[in-house]
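Read as amino acids, tokens; as here:

___
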Amino acid sequence: MILIQGKGVSNGVAIGPLYFYQRAKATITRYEVEDPEAEWARFKAAQATAIEQLGELAEKAREEAGDEAALLFETHQMMAEDMEYEEAIQTAVQENKLNAEAAVTDTAAQFAEMFAAMEDPYFQARAADVKDVSSRIIAALTGVAQGGINSPVPVILAADDLAPSETVQLDKSKILGFVTEGGSGSSHTAILARTMGIPAIISVGDQLKPEYEGKEVIIDGGTGNVTIDADEDAKAHLLKKMEEQRKTREMLEQLKGKPNETLDGRTIKVYCNIGGPDDVPAVLSNDAGGVGLFRSEFLYLNCDDFPSEDVQFEAYKKVLSDMGGKEVVIRTLDIGADKQIGYFNMPKEENPALGNRALRICLNRPEIFHTQLRALFRASAFGKLGIMFPMVTSVWEVKEAKKMCDRVRDELTKEGIPFSEDVEIGIMIETPAAVLMSDRLAKEVDFFSCGTNDLTQYTLACDRQNAELGRFFNPHHPAVLRALKIVCDNAHKNGVWVGICGELGADLALTETFLSIGIDELSVSPRSVLPLRQKIRETDVSQVKEKVLADLLSDENTI
């Protein structure tokens, strides 16, 4: 029996023969071309072919896994014709007289290196995307066909890494799960695997040997364990776990349509966090009650310039319309710190986590804020909207933001543009200052939503981007949980509801705590909705509340 440890990025247990992905690679030669214009035309033809292929892949992904999966390939289409990317290739071909294959290869390496050097994991993951797009263009230039699986039976697929386009092109009837040498948990490939429900393990390094091909392997995407030629006991254990997971999925499906009600009769709102309109189908298919956090910054991250009012309006309108009257809370622009956007031309800061970010940018650059608020209020006519301001520390900030809202309402009224009069205004509680001022802040807003990632970071003075801090970044720390209770107490005294939109919302070990301190809403990823509903329905708050509150006030961290 051979045991290999990797990192699980998509839950589930799968068993089958190990098969190494067959990737066709083009041989790239470098030479000087005599007719740069003809070579440029050759590149443009290959680029058009790649874009057409990506469009077909987007439709295939949409049929198999929904709009979120399709978005990956639509993004690749945009990347294939990105102006800076194309200009770099054009310079290499027309000015340096380099052949198209070499020009694309060099440009891909340059852009991938640039993305990989960025601090934001989102942009680091784009290094794999630009390589994937470039490989597709090179394949079109050289006429090399895409690789795949040549096996009569379903397999556990092994590879150095799998690009999103490679994953979606595979015959799913032949795939039981996959294991890769490298990869990233935030890469499109990992996201795609989770969306499609394929067990996946990454980062096993060089532990997979060619001689393992064809051997029986069991992978556990929850633990990251890869077991080759398992003995009878290990195999029986993993097969039992696979059957339990199947039964759990079937049981959770039966919870659709059921209320999020505790045993003692308290109802909790269970909403979803999303990054864009294409995530709505997953929200609805998992039976969430609404959207508790729409991260509007992704509109800015996916543009080469400031998104116009109309571009934003269409995105917000689509989410509100598609949600069919269910509540949608949209967070206003939240960039800065680990989310930087080039065209904002932000000066380099020594400590960006404490710098010009989120609501501070909006108040310092009101023209940006004004455009977004107009789009938001226009969209409010198409559903039930809540607007949420991030990174609040003072009452005056909220008052200034509300003045901007009043100004926008007045403008739209004068222009005869319809909007809802029932838009709720809320703030994110993610700083100790907001916690301590929550009694005053509650008099200014309709709701609070606690961003537990940043609240933990600022409360514990612990950089959440620093992997070396490990155990020091503890969202279960009593200081964080006590802060949440203070917020709930002050909110409820003023008739304000409280939600959690950070990752802790889906932590089932804390559900009883959240219900006991008075949290009204939990906003989680779509796939966490039904497990959370089950936990809520199994909880009797009246039975656990006294102990939970006593633990919070004790000197020990008992959670």
User: Anything to note?
Assistant: Residues 33 and 99 are 6 Å apart (CA to CA). Residues 36-65 form the longest helix (30 residues).
